[in-house]
Amino acid sequence: MAAPDYSEKIPNNVRLHEDRRLQRALESWQPSFLSWWREMGPTLPTQDVYLRTAIDVRGEGWAQFGHVPMPEYRWGIFLAERDPGREIGFGAHKGEPAWQQVPGEYRAELRRLIVIQGDTEPASVEQQRNLGATAPSLYDLRNLFQVNVEEGRHLWAMVYLLHGYFGREGREEAEELLHRNSGSSDAPRILGAFNEETPDWLSFFMFTYFTDRDGKYQLGTLKESAFDPLSRTCEFMLKEEAHHMMVGTTGVDRVVERTAQVMVENDTDDVAAHGAIPLDVIQKYLNFHYSVSLDLFGGETSTNVANYYSAGLKGRWLEERRADDHVLTHDSFMVDALLDDGTGGKTIGQLEVPALTGLNTDLRREYIADCAGGVKRWNRILESAGLPHRLSLPHVAFNRKVGAFAVIETSPAGEQLSAAEWERRKDQWLPTETDKAFVRSLMQPVYERGKIAAWIAPPRGAPNGGGINGQPFAYDYVHLA
Ligand code: BYC
């Protein structure tokens, strides 16, 4: 069960050959996927890329590495192993056996969650499609493509569930996942952050740090699902997701490290003239990507999330570690809220709500605590360089378009601003066209083995180590066409 079968047209560990109807349906979706990949996937022509491919869903040694022409990557369907005794861990069905089929009463909600999850995967590939043209090194180029092929595989993971468990409606949704496109005015992607551009590598590293991390947390809650195939799918996706987290975390590390070096060497904050990215620009990119990623958790209070939880469709982050009844019908929770200040105005505060409706806030708080870890790392880099400057996460109400704070504007410190004040000051806090043009001007490709662009430090251990799968940084990760 655990080992994928690569002799099949669609590699899988779900005995696809035993269900001819499903196999045929997926085989007829496969050409649409491949034509989407050709039209909307990476634009840089390559011969082959040093990629990992899953060969087992268990523990160590689950992946193999080798040079693969990207369109021939073996996208497939891999679920974590089934635990035959698994019970539902939360909600109204707590303690019942996990579902192997979709209960009719929850069909629409489950399909919706799977479609939203599935929609983000190809969206990110679309957002990142032009980045190959400006990669700072072959190592980074390879990491970009690894992330891209795995997001493609995550789309396969959701399409398998749609085809396998949701009949004709599921097949139609699977088609739609390839028709919607990031940033399209007619058929945009579903969630806000996935219609934003990723035009440069600083954005890419911030996206993989902040937005992929939303993916980690959402997948963590879907891994708890009573619908066992969804749970097992997400469990394996999380394994692949760890690499995406690494790309974002160390990517921002390396940008900050290079900036700090140039600041110290030249005894100036104005590193732009020396070809590095100024810290205030890094802070603005951080502010943007963090705030649009906070929106991905939905409203601070939500009846959708209460229903998902009670039905057993979507749990909490590390559900089994929570010391409560896992049903939550009698509990309350303090959420961030906009309150009346008693004089006709609004003030940012906290509000007690039924715990179930506060679950988006609960997940967002877990996520925020994790994000703070990155900022701490980056500040340690500044500190070891002997610099007094520090990066920070903006206030939860800053630049929000979804939820309680969508109707107000605040500074990164959380001070409420009038619309006019916001207009006057927002360029201090969010990337301006000039900032973006400057960052883009640094994005010149470096495709020579072992070389790296001047605005970013090489990974730790380079040039003889510091690479992927024990290879050196200077390895020939990508052969260009
Ligand atoms: N943009 O009840 P509410 C990833 C909608 S990332 C646009 O407050 P709910 C990845 C919402 O749909 C993880 N619309 O929110 C990362 C609802 O619409 P309806 C993706 C938004 O439903 C990088 C209405 O507003 N996975 O994997 O409790 C690279 C009221 O919403 C937004 C998931 O998100 C928004 N930002 O929670 C690759 C998991 N936010 O019902 C991949 C599945 C909310 O009024 N999705 N709305 O029409 C969910 O769990 C939930 O749907 C959400 C929203 C957390 C997204």
Distinct small-molecule ligands in the complex: benzoyl coenzyme A
The Rg value, from CA coordinates, equals 23 Å
Spans of 5+ residues with little confidence (pLDDT < 50)?
A: none
Q: How would a textbook summarize the main sheet?
A: 3 strands, antiparallel
Number of helices: 11
Percent in helix? 40-55%
Observed structural traits:
mainly alpha, globular, three-stranded antiparallel sheet, binds benzoyl coenzyme A, 481 residues, two-stranded antiparallel sheet
Q: How does the SSE layout of this entry go?
A:
Elements: H1 20-40, E1 46-54, E2 63-68, H2 107-127, H3 138-165, H4 167-179, H5 201-222, H6 228-266, H7 279-295, H8 303-311, E3 332-340, E4 346-354, H9 359-384, E5 409-410, E6 416-417, H10 419-425, H11 433-442, E7 478-480
Helix pairs in contact: 1-3, 1-4, 2-3, 2-4, 3-4, 3-6, 5-6, 5-7, 5-9, 6-9
Benzoyl coenzyme A binds next to helix 2, helix 5 and helix 8.
